[in-house]
Amino acid sequence: MSSTKHVQTEIDEILYSMLKALSLREKRPIKEILRDAIEEYLRKNANLTEEEISKDPIWEAFGAVSLKGKRTSHDEDWGVVEWRSH
User: Fold this and answer.
1) Rounded to whole angstroms, how far apart are CA atoms 33 and 6?
2) What are the pLDDT digits (tens) for 58-72?
3) What is the 3-state secondary structure (H, E, C) of 15-58?
4) What is the DSSP letter of 76?
5) Predicted TM-score (pTM) of this structure
6) Closest by CA position to 35, among listed 46, 23, 47
7) Is 63 left (phi over 0), alpha (psi -120 to 50) or beta?
8) What is the Cα–Cα distance from 52 to 15, expressed in whole angstroms?
9) What is the percent of the chain with per-residue pLDDT over 90, rounded to a whole number?
10) CA distance 21 to 40
């Protein structure tokens, strides 16, 4: 199994009440219901998402970025910094 990431968001009271009622009815935690809903949504949109990603112009830039006169993606000592949202 792959590693997991924590995701947090806000929802309005009505949506939360609906989730809570569903959770009680199905005897499942809200986070499990949300996880299933996200997985289903992504499965339904997987083809579109993959197509959009593959058409993103960023892929044309790989290998073409210069840093100090070098093509950084070709340098052995070049690394990728882990990005974090703050």
Assistant:
1) 15
2) 777 766 555 555 555
3) HHHHHHHHHHHHCCCHHHHHHHHHHHHHHHCHHHHHHHHHHCCH
4) T
5) 0.54
6) 23
7) left
8) 29
9) 40
10) 20
Q: What DSSP designation does 86 have?
A: -
Quick one: which of 51, 13, 19 has its CA closest to 38? Answer: 19
* The amino acid at 20: K
Give the tokens for residue 47.
């083809």
Report whether 44 contacts 50 (CB < 8 A).
no
Is the distance from CB of 66 to CB of 72 less than 8 angstroms? yes
In DSSP terms, which residues pair with 66 in a beta bridge? 71
* Whole-Å CA distances, 53 to 9, 71, 82: 24, 24, 20
Each residue's pLDDT tens digit, 29-83? 999 999 999 999 988 887 777 777 777 777 777 665 555 555 555 555 555 555 5
